[in-house]
Amino acid sequence: MDRAAFDQLFDMSDRTVIVTGGTRGIGLALSEGFALSGARVVVASRKPDACAAAAAHLRSLGGEAIGVPAHLGAVDDLAALVDRTVSEFGGIDVVVNNAANALAQPFGSMTVDAWNKSYSVNLQGPVFLVQHALPYLTQSPAAAVLNMVSVGAFNFAPSLSIYASGKAALMSVTRSMAAEFAPLGIRVNALAPGPVDTDMMRNNPQEAVDAMAANTLMRRLASPDEMIGTALLLCSRAGSYITGQVVIVDGGGTPR
Fold it and tell me: Where in this chain does the record put each Ketoreductase domain (predicted)?
């Protein structure tokens, strides 16, 4: 490998990346990483003001970015997100399915509405967003899909079966997508974060947060920025021979 090829390993220049749930937490950190690596970034979330603020922030870093309000649980919004991305940037190279719903209900108190709300965002949305984007991904010379799952797909805990089962299903979908899309030149992988210092994490009681941090070998929460390196690996030339994989980034907390 020569210097020019080496320097391009993590270079995302001339690629258009959609990041759902990209206005805060892990999603915003990933959006920053892609923008700083040269990508054109489309940030999507439910709140128009948050989308506009995140896009302005990415532009202040020197990136090209737009914000598109979209609810991952609304299929019509997904088609509109793809259409707006293509009209603005001419195509789609990478889809990052990061938006998630962390509803928790114990057995005995579950509702159908909670299941539908959670699965529409955590599973149905990612599947149909990729399906809408597929005609454009097939035209990209370096297409990739990154599904953000969770160590919850491997672990179990009281009241978390709705969320955990949805993430486990998305992990399975990741593998199926990888198998189907490999002949099309599209790589599909998943990233499974452990406990990360985000708004979602801070919604838990402090004793629960402390316990999750203590259960990692590194004895701490991750910063959202600590997800960027793995995401770039899985979406860039550096990961050109990686597909159908789930990479756990959890400080050593998940039993193998």
Answer: 15-194
Task: Please report, for residues 20, 79, 121, 184, 230, the alpha-carbon distance to residue 72 in angstroms, rounded to integers and kept in the order given.
Answer: 8, 10, 5, 25, 23
pLDDT at 256: 57
pLDDT per residue as tens digits for the range 99-151: 998 888 889 899 999 999 999 999 999 999 999 999 999 999 999 999 999 99
Going along the chain, which residue ranges are E strands? 16-20, 40-45, 64-69, 94-97, 143-148, 186-193, 246-249
- Which residues lie across from 47 on neighbouring strands? none
Active site residue 241: no
Which listed residue (119, 136, 163, 241) is catalytic? Answer: 163
Helix (H) or strand (E) holding 173: helix 161-181
Q: Which two tokens stand for residue 161?
A: 């079966």
Domain range list for the chain: 3-248
Helix (H) or strand (E) holding 246: strand 246-249
Please count the helices (runs of H) and the strands (runs of E) in the chain. Answer: 10, 7
